[in-house]
Amino acid sequence: MKKKKLCLLVIVCSLLLSGCWDANEPERFVYANGIGIDYKDGKIVVYIQIINLGSLAKAESGAGGSTSKADVGRAEGNTFEEAIFNLYHTSDRRIYLGHLSFVIFSEEAIKVGGIKHIADFLDRFRETRYRMYFFATKDSIKDIMLISPIENISLAFSKLSDPHDNYHQSSFIPPTDLRELIIALDEPPHQAQLPFLQISKRWTAQDGPKKELLIEKAAIISDNKLISILSKEIMNGARLTNKEFVRDSVYLSKRRNADISVLIYDKKVKIKPIIDKDGKVRFDIKLKLNANIQMIKKQETVNKLKKEIGQAIRAEVYRTYHFTRKQKIDIFNLSETLYRDDNKTWKKVQKNGVIPLEEDTIKSLSVNVQLKNSGKMELSPIFRDGQ
Length: 387
Prior knowledge:
single chain; 387 residues; alpha/beta; GMP Synthetase, Chain A, domain 3; four-stranded mixed β-sheet; globular; membrane; germination; Spore_GerAC-like; Spore_GerAC-like_C; Ger(X)C family spore germination protein
């Protein structure tokens, strides 16, 4: 009797199970890896890059074959939503946005205020994640999306999809993901910094020159508008204040760069607000970092090199500060530092989240350089003159 009741209970429970009748099978999707947003003739233009995740699995397992191919779709509309739905209509299968890795804005799209609207859409959309990186460009978005990485590696490991690996080797312009973009535009000084993409031909394949992506500029966005595009020479002084800085080279001077090459790493920075008696806000900046000598042509002393490296870094920082200050760009986030350290004073002096930046706002800048292993444990060249 008990066995009959148990069997009856199992049968009834089985009838209540929903099963997998409404499940979406992964192989039936097409997967969007990146989105591009442009603005032309009063219309929003949307590009979507589709990649084959099956080829990615083959690459990781060691199977042969090309893994860098992608398809790029294009559609336009009066709004971003209209454009993306127009693109949906051309797809054979459902386009899945849960694996989005990057978003590229054209200069025109930024100028018409597209950043916040797109960020809001992507943040609300249930499929997307915060781990997608934002870029700006004035080159063709379609051409950028069709560029294959060097060595024919998967597009999932490209500079757009996975920018941190490249940044850790040369920490110049830090990647900005969705979470960081929202924070930057919402908190003082309400300014975001996006890596600026350029199409380059510095690499060559067996069949000729190869297109590759170059990041040597940064786009500064504030109040949902494009404020400026800063060159490498201007951005050099800002890299050491980036929290994620790992390592990069430092240039001493045009004359000295032919004689010596210096790598800086293991950086620590401390920015402290100082309130003068008249209520003026100024800042003390302290930088502490390690340096390695990568190449040297003649005998040098430790103290002389430390002094030269410190002077070069100080010159970079001041050059960056004075140039960006004139454009009303708070590149060192001094406003945010005061906001967090002394909110009462910040409320008194701020205007739209930004405090006044003047010629002497940086009260002091100290650079502490520690020279580490130069490769031969000495600051002398391997080859002597005349030998």
